């Protein structure tokens, strides 16, 4: 009875296995298990540092560290200083050169004259929060 409807999906397990292998390879580029989130946060920090460097025409990692300490009241950024940012930059550059390159390229893109420094909401960014029946909130693009 369902065979006519499901016949188009008979190769689905093999296709999902292939997709899983590809995505696993991409995830491995972000670092070893347990270090992916650390590497991602360092990558964002380097992007911010490079952005400030390009906009101010000088290294201002100490000021960036002070700014991050001021606005970040949740994590343990209290001891972050300009030298720590330099060390994190070197760590990413040596251990994960592809992530370092992506961080630099992202900062370069953000510094282009035709790219706004702070992008406004677009079709890819959520524009509002919607409450669910269970009291949770979801981000939505609906107007």
Topology:
Elements: H1 3-6, H2 12-28, H3 36-56, H4 61-71, H5 82-95, H6 97-110, E1 128-131, E2 137-140
Antiparallel strand pairs: 1-2
Helix pairs in contact: 3-5, 3-6, 4-5, 5-6
Describe it for me?
There is one protein chain. This protein starts with a helix and ends with a strand. It has a domain of 86 residues. Strands 1-2 form a two-stranded antiparallel sheet. Strand 1 and strand 2 form a beta hairpin. The chain is built from six helices and two strands; from the N terminus they run ααααααββ. By secondary structure, it is mostly helical. The model has no long low-confidence stretch (mean pLDDT 77).
Order of helices and strands: HHHHHHEE
Q: Radius of gyration over alpha carbons?
A: 21 Å
Instruction: Give me the secondary-structure category.
Output: mainly alpha
Give the count of helical stretches.
6
Range of helix content: 55-70%
| Principal-axes shape call | elongated
The first-to-last residue Cα distance is: 42 Å
Strand count, sense and barrel status of the largest sheet are:
2 strands, antiparallel
Q: Would you report the number of β strands?
A: 2
> Regions with pLDDT < 50 over 5+ consecutive residues?
none
Please indicate the percent range of residues in DSSP E strands (runs of 2 or more): 5-15%
- Average of the residue pLDDT scores: 77
How are the strands ordered across the major sheet?
Answer: 1-2
């Amino acid at each position: 009875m369902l065979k006519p409807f499901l016949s188009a999906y008979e190769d689905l397990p093999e296709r999902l296995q292939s997709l899983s292998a590809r995505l696993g390879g991409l995830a491995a580029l972000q670092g070893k298990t347990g270090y992916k989130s650390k590497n991602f946060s360092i990558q964002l920090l380097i992007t911010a540092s490079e952005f400030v460097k390009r906009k101010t025409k000088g290294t201002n990692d100490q000021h960036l560290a002070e700014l991050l300490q001021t606005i970040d009241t949740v994590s343990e950024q209290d001891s972050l200083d300009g030298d720590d940012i330099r060390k994190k930059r070197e760590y990413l550059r040596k251990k994960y050169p592809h992530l370092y390159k992506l961080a630099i390229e992202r900062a370069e893109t953000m510094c282009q004259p035709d790219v706004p420094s702070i992008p406004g909401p677009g079709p890819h960014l959520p524009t509002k929060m919607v409450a669910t029946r269970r009291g949770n909130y979801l981000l939505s693009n609906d107007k």
